[in-house]
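Co-fold these.
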Amino acid sequence: MIEFLLFALAVKLSEDDPELVRRLKNREPQAMAELYDLYGRLTYALIFRIVRNGPVAEDLVQETFLRIWNRVHGFDAERGAFGPWILAVARNRAIDYLRSIDGRTMQTPFELEKMEEPSQYADFERHIMNVDRARLLREAFVKLSPNQRVVIELAYYEGLSQSEMATRLRQPLGTVKTLVRSALKRLREHLGERAALA
Amino acid sequence: MNHEELGDLYELYTLGVLEEPERAEIEQHLKTACPECQAGVKGALALNALLATLPETLEPPKRLRRRVLASVGMEPAGSFWKNAWALAAVALAMVLFVVALDSQRRNQELAGARGQLRRTTSDLAQARAEIQQSSAELRQVRSALTLLNLPNTREVVFGGATAQPPRGRVFVNRQQGVLLLASNLPPAPSGKTYELWLIPRGGNPVPSGLFQSDIAGNALFVRSGPVQANTAAVAVSLEPETGSTAPTTTPVIVASVTD
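Predicted complex below.
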């Protein structure tokens, strides 16, 4: 319940995102302070969940906010979704770290950088991150089967491909793909049609 | 793949975990500006953002806020350390100030000590000079007493006939020397001194020593050493302070020495 209250607070405050983005673009340091106050806890919790290491999480949170600061000029203050962008940057920084320490050489080039482009977060409806949707997702996640939750967590919090999941779980790749597909479908259905989200 | 099949992969694609050949196929399709796929990608990004809210909320360390703000040049990362440095700088300045004051005080004390040392040295030199003078006078007095106590020393009185003459006595001992005791002998003018002469019979005066009288006009002078047997008189004249080889002025004291 506490995490929902905090998230709700962050979402409520994020209604001022366009103005905040403008101030960040104007290089107002105080705007950075406000941005951290809005998203600092969320990004820290997310990154810590991925790296499981406090000092590393601190480094990555700092890197996340610095990256936002450096790339905010490319963000559309009026049409962009600031929260999803920040969280994507935070998650990708942490996944990058995991991959670096694991020595994971991906068989395919994953384009985390591309998914951090501010232009990817334009034309979002501002309400895509609100308390109701966060609650719906949590409910849907809890209702997943354990195996479904595992594959979603491996993809989201460890950045594993489906082949890597199959190796980790010692399951056939087809089984993993079925689990992933079915899990995502349940989440989408619980939240509503994807078109409604976008 | 058709749109429905692609639609199952948007989340994995946007999470960066989709492998080939599906990833390339999605990218190729997105280049066609397919509205359905673009909407699918945005929906996937939105779902990913909501997945980010699942972890339990954690309160980050307070120092992290300072670090983040410092990284963009706002609050010094560590304003604590900046303050600490500032405090350290102030403390250092205070220490330097105190040291400077102490140094100034020590310099003043040292200068005072040096002045004191100079004065002490001067006093010491003066004392040494006084001691040397006293020693010389003592030696002269001892010589005079020795000469006076000798049985064969002869006494000659001079100046008794004049109104305000130098008066005194001359004691002559042929083996030991001559002792002159005088009074009413005014201090020699600046650049001048008194010179004692031993005058042989039929010969020229022999320079026998320089001396001064004191402020009261008294003088005691001993010329040590044998005295020639033909010495007929002892005289004193005023001469340049370096002395003369022969009297240049009329003698102020003349005492005949006769056996």
